Amino acid sequence: MAIRPPLLQRGDTIGLVTLGSPLDAIIINTGAQFLRSMGFNVVFGRHVFSSGGIVAASAQQRADDLMNMFLDPSVKMILATRGGTGVQTILPYLNFEVIRQSPKIISGYSDLTVLINSLYQFSNLITFHSLMLIDFRLETPAYNFNQFFEATSTLNSPRIIQNPPDVALRSLVPGNVTGPIVGGNMTSLVNALGTPYEINTQGKILFLEETHSPTTMIFRYLTQLLMSGKFQDCLGIIIGECTNCPVSYGTTYDDLINNLLVPLRKPLIINLTTGHGFYKAAIPIGANVNLNSTDNTLTVIEPTVS
């Protein structure tokens, strides 16, 4: 069973870190103030405001910020400011055993996908494919906050992950499987293939989402995941949205799913709202879930915090 981090409560301290691309200081400070208005204390990583080009700071500096948050006993949750690119470069500098001994809530999506899956894979820690600092703002829909806090601030179990009422989950291959859930952004996962941090899908339920990639690129990603055995190893498949993904050669995102994944005959649902879409379901990486693609339900069957 994976390690559950301690639950988050009002008055707790949240540590902010920039682990990939830089983010404007005004946006960071605005998000920090929003968290304070919700009743949390905020501390900043040393390099949270750094801007060194494509990435905010060196890999060692960004990794040190993350490790310092895990080592700080006053910090209950670690929140990435944004994704962007370059998160995977910090992985060789992390001490996964120290992280295992100091479990905390950590949340993110996009390029954070490779981190949150590695923390589960190497530290056995449940992490959250959910909100980043850029999502803590007035414009964020209540659905996203409800999902986030139900996953991180309650012991509710079982928890059914439901799309907003006007967005239906759809089954393409019926079935019923239970296992740990892993996955996230396709770009991030494919970039890690062939490295020590390649995702392990053996006996897992794999979910995927993407943004701003034409369907020619999605075709490449899905083919690479197929040829590396990731779909063959998994128990079932959940496909999220592909936001702002242009159609290429008259072939849509749905066409690719039907042509490449349906023939595998693994339990398969599509249209989960998480990641880059407007609505963001909170997916607990490493937690046991039940995927019932006959009834179109996704249920987290254990508490994800302690």
From TrEMBL:
Boundaries of every LD-carboxypeptidase C-terminal domain copy: 178-291
SUPFAM superfamilies found in the cross-reference section: Class I glutamine amidotransferase-like, LD-carboxypeptidase A C-terminal domain-like
Keyword DNA-binding appears in the UniProt entry: no
Domain LD-carboxypeptidase N-terminal, residue spans: 14-129
Alphabetic keyword roster: Carboxypeptidase, Hydrolase, Protease, Serine protease
Pfam families: Peptidase_S66, Peptidase_S66C
UniProt superkingdom: Bacteria
Family the UniProt entry places it in: Belongs to the peptidase S66 family.
Protein name: LD-carboxypeptidase
